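Q: Could you predict the 3D structure of Transcriptional regulator?
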Amino acid sequence: MGGLMIDYVLLEEYCQNISILFVEDDESIKKETTELLKEIFTCVDVASDGEEGLSKYKEYLNINQKHYDIVLSDIKMPKIDGLELTKLIYEENPDQKIIVLSAHSETKYLLEFVNIGISYFLVKPLDYDEFINVIFNITKDIHDQNELRNNFKAEKIVLNNILIWDKQTKQLLRNNQAIKLTKKEFLLIELLLKTIEKTHPVQEIIAILWEGDYESSADITNLKNIVSRLRKKVPELDIENVYGFGYKINIRYFE
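A: Sure. Here are the predicted structure tokens for Transcriptional regulator:
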């Protein structure tokens, strides 16, 4: 029993801010299941057939600039059936989490769904425990993926669609391949990326790049040479010279 309680506590955590689109043409099943979904999720949208489902799916993306977290769809529906709807949604978003709702008589369709990548199924009429189990597994999966994504963001700075600065390994990656940097090139990038898009004064940069180095090479000319070399080595790195003040790295994406 204790394990079950932990499951429900986790379920509540996993289901926070999860959006779901429910597509079902049977009025009684739609009403009953919608009530159940609304007890679990804050954002529940409902459609009566595949055509309306696809329309709501696109509308949600348009308004929210993201897809639904989960789509729960019946198989046999007018206009666009569940299989066709699933294929169309996968064309829009290959990573979409989809749960297929099927009657016992529709098991012949299930292999087709498995073949296009569906791994979550529920049988009508809904068994509550089975339903909660599937919802738990799918929301846990979404939660874990989001955690990974957030950790990735924390550890890596995406500079553009080619370059990533890995803060943990202290490497500049071009298409996931490490670029060989000299010590001063590395120090310069690390400093400029400590605060994204902040302009660092020349004197601050020189003090850090030539710290403990008492040679006379610590001057603006040599800093310019390092920047010039780095620009040639990594042309995708947008190092901006803010005239009369210092340098900064801009984050920008290429078309």
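Q: Anything worth pointing out?
A: The first strand starts at residue 19 and ends at 23.
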